[in-house]
Amino acid sequence: MKVAASSLRKGSVVDIDGKLYVVLNAENIHPGKGTPVTQLNMRRISDGVKISERYRTTEQVERAFVDERDHTFLYQDGEGFHFMNPENYDQLVASPEVIGDAAVYLQEGMTVSLSTHDGVPIAITLPQRVTLEIVETEPAVKGQTASSSYKPAILSNGQRAMIPPYITAGTKIVVLTEDGSYVERAKD
Length: 188
Fold this sequence. Notes:
Layout: E1 2-4, E2 13-16, E3 19-29, E4 37-44, E5 50-56, E6 60-62, E7 67-76, E8 81-84, E9 91-94, H1 96-99, E10 111-117, E11 120-125, E12 129-137, E13 151-155, E14 160-163, E15 172-176, E16 182-185
Antiparallel strand pairs: 1-6, 2-3, 3-4, 4-5, 7-8, 7-10, 8-9, 10-11, 12-13, 12-15, 13-14, 15-16
């Protein structure tokens, strides 16, 4: 399906010369003089190579049909990351390149949105927030107010986060999957 280059957004999948690319970011540039253009930074799905292309905003680009569905994360092994479609129980294996930085937040039984093209996983969208346990942190310092500062902590997935000083090791907290920042103490 052909679409105008200016209509492409982050996460769109395009077909250029028979190869699939996922759009990392799209910027419409309107110079004072001359033709407006759309700058696309893309990653080739097959091998992860990043490219940058510039199109006139009215130019047509072939958009690939992508199926986006919720899948349940099962486990990870030498083959890759295994997901199951809860509707028909079909299983898919995604490569570590497709999962990328999202791997640290994946938890058994987590529901994620998996984008597939011809049955092959090409992109993953995590839930906005995940609950993790604090494994290690500095002890609370007496007299330190809650608003003054944050202290470093190591979470159950091995990531580091900055948390309020009154929270201790063993506490479950909610973090944003986008940047790993602390949101709140988890409600049990």
